[in-house]
Amino acid sequence: MHTFAKYLFTALLPYDSELAYSVGLRAMRLPILEEHDDNEEVAINPAMNSSVLTRYPRWFTLGHIEVQQCALASTMLSAAKSDVVKLPTVLKSAQRNIHSSSQLFKLAQDAFRIAVPADGGSRHPTLLDAAFQLGLQVMRMTLASLNWRRREMVRWLVTCATELGLEAVISIIQNWYQLFSPTEATGPVATTVMSHATVMRLNLDFRQQEELASCARTLALQCATKDPPNCALNALTLCESDSFAFEAAYQIVVDAATTNVMTSSQLFTVARYMEHRGYPHRAYKLAVLAMKGVHLAYNQDNHPAINDIHWACALSHSLGKPELTNLVPLLVKNVQCATVLSDILRRCSMAAPGIATLDAKRRCIKPLSLDKPPLRQLLEAAISAYVNTTHSRLTHISPRHYGDFIEFLGKARETFLLAQDGHIQFAQLVDNMKSAYKGKKKLMLLVKERFG
Q1: How many Cα atoms sit within 13 Å of 143 on the Cβ side?
Q2: Do the Cβ atoms of 197 and 162 come closer than 8 Å?
Q3: How far out from the chain centre does Cα 318 lie?
Q4: H-helix or E-strand containing 306?
Q5: pLDDT of residue 363
Q6: Which helix (H) or strand (E) holds 232?
Q7: Which pLDDT does position 65 carry in this prediction?
Q8: Nearest-CA neighbor of 135 among 105, 155, 159?
Q9: Is 364 helix (H, G, I), strand (E, B) or coil?
Q10: Residue (of 91, 40, 30, 88) closest to 64 by Cα position
Q11: Coil, strand, or helix at residue 335?
């Protein structure tokens, strides 16, 4: 039907445009998908069952019908591109009768191609606005439903708004919650809008650039408030140029961290960003909050958070002894992995890796003593972790792991010897092993050969 209507529309248009549009608009309807009262009729007259059911297309023909419907709408929009009276009528009919988001998106793309010719031909602003309106409807239709082309749709709408002008761009930013998810809004939408290419395309003056940037910062803060885990980093990036907005975005992250909305991994990512941007103390605060959510058992020496833990310790060490002193109790509480604790201990016992404070040149940085806080507490925790891990590994050890265990004990002895009475403590550990696990004769023989 739609194909025939398209033919009639094209044939009648040069002779009787009113009749052509009347035929096209009537044919664009898709009654099979419209609301009706057929169910009530069937309930009254069961004999109508078969006749009513035959009105519905089979699932494999519906898609074809929608393609034809879209082609008819595209032809009519193209014909009405310069008609300020007919174009809104065709647009309204398409918005009301096309129920497929994919076909509606295709129609919007067709209208955009005609309105903004790739060969640089004359533009049609009215048709471009119609394409934009179709794009807005597609965004609303697919916001809460899955569509594999959603990412393409988002990028296209931003492009269309850019072609339309600053007012259209600001409108999608201010009404983002109706069109985009928070992640989309702070990601592809805001990033593209704030890019240098977009500013040049819109030919904005300084005042307009500031207006656009202000709208983008407002969007960033709203999205970060609504979805901190996925939007915090993008929000901070968008707010970099304004100190008040940046501080507000940072506070949103802190609040999310204190309420356990963000994971430790996400917090570490933001903390690293803050350090990179030159805010070490803010980075340290986030690192401490992130550490509260990290827990390493004795056997998790390959945990993905280990690099972040080392970074947090290096940051606190570089800031000064008070910061490291504040972090160590949290580290001791949440990390039971002996190898991780011993690695941190060795790194912190050396000179600070870099000083992030402004008065760095006036400070004389000396290696921290292992006999005084905070490293003393860390050393004791590392030794205790090695003792506990040793007994845990011996409980279920098999002969093929004897070699690994001896190497582990070698690393343990290195850590024990950092303490003043470390050699005595290690000797006691070995004696306890020989006594408690004397049934493992081969293993104890290896221990005796290596450690006496």
Answers
A1: 16
A2: no
A3: 30
A4: helix 306-319
A5: 44
A6: helix 228-238
A7: 84
A8: 105
A9: coil
A10: 30
A11: strand
* Higher per-residue confidence, 57 vs 427: 427
Quick one: residue 146, left, alpha or beta (phi over 0 = left, psi -120 to 50 = alpha)? beta
Name beta bridge partners: 335.
296
pLDDT for 21 beyond 50: yes
Using a 10 angstrom Cβ sphere, with 0-12 exposed, 13-18 middle and 19 or more buried, the burial of residue 64 is: exposed
pLDDT at residue 54 tops 80: no
Secondary structure of 396-436 as H, E, C letters = CCCHHHHHHHHHHHHHHHHHHCCCCCHHHHHHHHHHHHHHH
Chain centroid, CA 5 distance in Å: 46
Q: Which two tokens stand for residue 85?
A: 């009276």
- pLDDT value for 360: 45
Residue 369 DSSP code: P
Average of per-residue pLDDT across 175-184: 97
Burial of 211 (0-12, 13-18, 19+ CB in 10 A): middle
Which is more confident, 359 or 187? 187
> Is 10 strand, coil or helix?
helix
Mean pLDDT in the chain? 89
CA-based nearest residue to 91, from 143, 33, 140, 28: 28
Q: End-to-end alpha-carbon separation of the chain, Å? A: 95
Residues belonging to the chain = 452
Q: Determine phi and psi for 296, rounding to 5 degrees.
A: -115, 120
Partners of residue 296 on adjacent β-strands: 335
The two structure tokens encoding residue 254: 């802190």
How many other C-beta atoms lie within 10 A of the C-beta of residue 333? 12
pLDDT digits (tens, 9 = 90+) for 213-258: 999 999 999 999 999 999 999 999 999 999 999 999 999 999 999 9
Provide mean pLDDT across the span 431-443. Answer: 87
Which pLDDT belongs to residue 353? Answer: 63
Tokens of 329: 């109790």
Q: Any idea of the CA torsion for 208, 209, 210, 215, to the nearest 10 degrees?
A: 90
Q: What is the pTM of this model?
A: 0.83
Strands (E), 200-338: none
CA 212 to chain centre: 23
Amino acid at 325: T
Amino acid present at 312: A
Question: What is the arithmetic mean of pLDDT over 375-389?
Answer: 94
Task: Give the residue from 398, 407, 419, 414 showing the smallest Cα distance to 447.
Answer: 407
What token pair was written down for 49? 């069952």
